[in-house]
Amino acid sequence: MAFTFFFFFKQLHRKKSKITSVCFDSQHLSKLSNLDRLENLRFASFRNNDLTRVEGLEKCVNLEELCLDYNLLSSLDGLSSLKKINHLSVSHNLIQNLDAINELRLLNYLAADNNQLTQIGSFVNTENIIQLYVGNNKISNLREIFHLKHLAQLVIVDLAGNPVCTSGHYRLFVIYHLRALKALDGIAVCTTETSQAKETFGGKLTVDFVAERLQHSRFAEVQELDFPGSSIRHVDLGQGHLFQCLRSVNLERNSMTSLSGLVHITSLQVLCLNHNRFECVVERYKKKGVEEPFCVVLPNLEVLHLGYNSIVDIKNLQLGRIPSLKSLFLQGNDIVEVDGLEALSKLRELVLDRNKIKVIGEMSFVSQSQLVELHVEENRLRELSNLCQLESLQRLYLGQNRIQDISEFDKLEPLKNLLEISVINNAVSRRLLHRPLLVYRQPNLQIIDCIPVTDDERQKADMYFIEQQPIQNSIEPSLAVLQPQAGAKNSPIKVTSVQLGSSPGQHWGYDENTVNLLRNHSQAQALSRQKQAQVAAAMILNQQRANPANNVRFKSKRY
Q1: How far, in Å, CA of 527 to CA of 360, rounded?
Q2: What pLDDT is recorded for position 292?
Q3: How many CB atoms lie within 10 A of CB 451?
Q4: Exposure of 205 in the CB half-sphere (CA atoms within 13 A)
């Protein structure tokens, strides 16, 4: 028999062969050689032999189907030159990995059952696989399925006989991740199983989900998770012991309603949940009519983003469960009232832009003595009451509200540490009188409406408001005798003259420097004093008319 094969191979070696198919099953072959002339070979079978290596087929570049079942192969190295192969069967060998098949881009059928495989491996370049048989191996990690998720044409998979089959929800897990699957382990996939798989695994941030996205399972090294727009509804990362170094999580644009699945990750410092459906920190459950106790969670969380979550009431969020918060972002919601922040005494930054806040209540910031920055832009504020409790406030942003009365800024005087303020696009800012007033009233203010305050501007504001101060003691001291004393009898008083041109210091109550400044000022000041004198004279005339019994003649000095 050996002579026959030797003669056959010698004939092949002499001239180019037109043979397209060969079958050498059960021939006790231990090596393949002298096949260089089989350039037209398309189908070959070497089942049930003693082959330990794939070799001798390098020149068979047109080979499409190859069967090497029941041999002693430990690897598939040597197949890289067979670019046209689409059907490969290597069952019942000693193969430990399938790395070599990545070069077979046209492969659509692979049978590697009954080997020594511990993992499925990467199918990066073999995107045309339709049928995969890897049953009765040693695959134990269910996450190996992730290597097959990109295979859009994969419809038949057989994993039966592997340890992985004993994992919980094994079948539903495979069906969920391999969306095109029609049959698993010889059993057809029905629509009921597909629906159940979506309900069980859909929208969940699990350990398997993280491993798939990160392409590894070294969770102890992970410091940041970033999964925006991943349709996540629930989080289930266990008791947190796997993610001991996790510091930041970004789950923007998902469908999260609470933090129930994240509360065990005690190392978490930054959490972003913008554009979700957030309702509360932890869902409340009742057992036999008794509500779950209110406890602190996420003890190291400092930054929480909850923008654009359609939040109406801050109090319902249970933010008191996270007393360590230092920065809270609640922009773009439907908040009407600022409440529920009593337990957040460490808060330093609060963003409430683009809400529906009309007024700040007396208890809104009762515990926020450490608050440094407050954003309340694009709301419906008309007044600035109840901000005096923010004694550490340095930056205040009030743009695009409904503040009209310039006297509202008087309520900010207790904020001695205020460094920056913005009131852009409020009615009160249209006349540009708010800026000198704020400069005058807030000596530490450095920036107004994003424009720095200069020393020259501060001097001009001080001078302007000194000039605009109301004249005290407008009536001459000599007119004090006109005021009836207690118990004195009313008698006619004759006023022959009124001295209004005396020293300004007697009229205005200013010191000598201010008096000199007023004397040297423009004509507008003189007109202002003339008006004040006229007002004083009118007051006395009204007093006389109210008491006709007093026949008083009043002569005012004209300027």
Answers
A1: 42
A2: 54
A3: 10
A4: 24
Q: Long-range contact list for 37-41, CB < 8 A, 24+ apart?
A: 37/12, 37/13, 38/12
451 contact partners, CB below 8 Å, separation of at least 6: none
- Determine the pLDDT at residue 470: 59
Of 201, 255, 268, 264, the residue nearest 228 (C-alpha)? 255
327 phi, psi to nearest 5 deg: -135, 125
SS3 219: helix
Query: On the CB side of 103, how many CA atoms lie within 13 Å of its CA?
Result: 10
Cα→Cα distances 427→156, 308, 430, 438, Å: 69, 27, 6, 16
- The pLDDT value recorded for residue 134 is 96
**CA dist., res. 537 & res. 519, Å (int):** 23
Instruction: Say which range, 132-146, 250-264, 346-360, 497-511, has the weakest mean pLDDT.
Output: 497-511
Dihedral sign for Cα atoms in the order 342, 343, 347, 353: negative
Stretch (H or E) spanning 351: strand 349-351
Nearest 5°: phi and psi at 433? -85, -15
Sign of CA dihedral 182, 185, 191, 196: negative
Bridge partner residues of 327 (DSSP) = 303, 349
**Given the structure tokens 């992730």, which residue do they identify?**
146
Q: Where are the beta strands (DSSP E) in 80-203?
A: 87-89, 109-111, 131-133, 156-158, 183-184, 187-188
Query: Which residues, in sequence order, are bridge partners of residue 329?
Result: 305, 351
Note the helical H segments in 370-445: 434-441
411 backbone dihedrals φ, ψ, rounded to 5°: -75, -10
At residue 180 the predicted structure's pLDDT band, cuts being 50, 70 and 90, is: very high
What pLDDT digit, counting tens, does each position of 196-229 carry?
999 888 899 999 899 989 988 899 999 999 999 9
Q: Please give the model's pTM, rounded to 2 decimal places.
A: 0.70
Residue 527: partners with Cβ closer than 8 Å, 6 or more residues away: none
Q: Which two tokens stand for residue 94?
A: 């000693």
Backbone angles phi, psi at 87, to 5 degrees: -135, 115
H helices of 366-481, where? Answer: 434-441, 455-468
Residue 233's nearest CA partner among 209, 266, 213 is 209
Please give the C-alpha separations between residue 534 and each of 137, 321, 521, 528, 531, in angstroms, as whole numbers.
108, 65, 21, 10, 5
C-alpha distances (whole Å) from 235 to each of 202, 215, 302, 303, 343 are 11, 19, 20, 19, 26
CB 46 within 8 A of CB 68: yes
Q: Count other Cβ atoms within 10 Å, centred on residue 513.
A: 8
Asked if 35 contacts 61 with a C-beta cutoff of 8 angstroms, the reply is: no
Query: In whole angstroms, what is the distance from residue 153 CA to residue 167 CA?
Result: 25
Q: What is the pLDDT, as a whole number, of residue 503?
A: 42
Per-residue pLDDT, averaged over 463-485, amounts to 54
**Orientation of helix 455-468 relative to helix 512-519, angle to 10°:** 90
